[in-house]
Write a structure and sequence with these properties.
It contains 16 helices and no strands. The chain is mainly alpha-helical. The longest helix is centred in the N-terminal third of the chain and has 35 residues. The two termini are about 40 Å apart.
Length: about 300
Amino acid sequence: MAAPDTLAERKRLDRIIYIKRSWMLYLMLLLPMAFFAVFRYIPMWNIQIAFKDYNIFRGVGESPWVGMKWFAAAFQSRDFLNALRNTILLNLLDLIIGFPAPVILAILLNECAFRMFKKFSQTVMYLPHFLSWIIISGIASQLFAPSGGVINVALAKIGLGPVEFLMKPNMWVGTYIGLGVWKEMGWGTIIYLAAITGINPEIYEAAEVDGAGRWGKIWHVTLPGIRSTIIVLLIMNLGRILGSEFDRPYTMGNPSVMQVADVIGTMVYRVGIRSGQFSLTSAVGLFQSAVCVIFLLAANSLSKKFGERGIW
């Protein structure tokens, strides 16, 4: 083959060589791209249900358009407003209490001098992440049941009355948040520990030479070293501030605490799936997704103003 004479020809040959070397990587990308196309993008066609008086027998295309009717109906519904309030409240509490927990745990584990204890602690703390909320709810009912629960039996033996952890709204919220932190705290430390290990050890040595103690090194080296990781994860959590899990509140909820346990996810299931109001719940879901995107964009823009890279 003749040597390329122009810069454009040289770039074209480099591109051909690169594709020949990396064609298997692009072939491997076809499966995840097909997954996202089939299960994420094509179903977006049905978003129009939120703007139609959907009839399951007439289908999406034949159902009549009704404009913003279902959005107005949602905001006039007490069930939706209550679910919206509960979703925001529970997610804010999860963010305020649950977000710092893995950061603190990662720093504590990093400062632990006993390697065997550190590895054992990491393993024990990771395990709850792999339990489903069905299992955790069963454990919670055995631990916190008003009569016969392990914790209430122990409280009774020391002269304290039974505490209705799962029956009183305020106590239920505390139990809900506490179990969420316990389940995900250990798993979240993986990212922060990886970020901590990426910090140059010479920076710690320089801080020690300057007279910094253990707390000084944590404050002036460790936390600034993982700040970008914290910001990125905070942005992603803010993007889910109006998102709602289904299995967690559904399995832990009961009729006594529905005023605080009913979130958008359970409301969509109850009203949309069980009652057949597909248009109303599609409007609710579309509103929820739009607000999450707005929060994500706002948090990402704010992080860039503070000098961080953000997530794009």
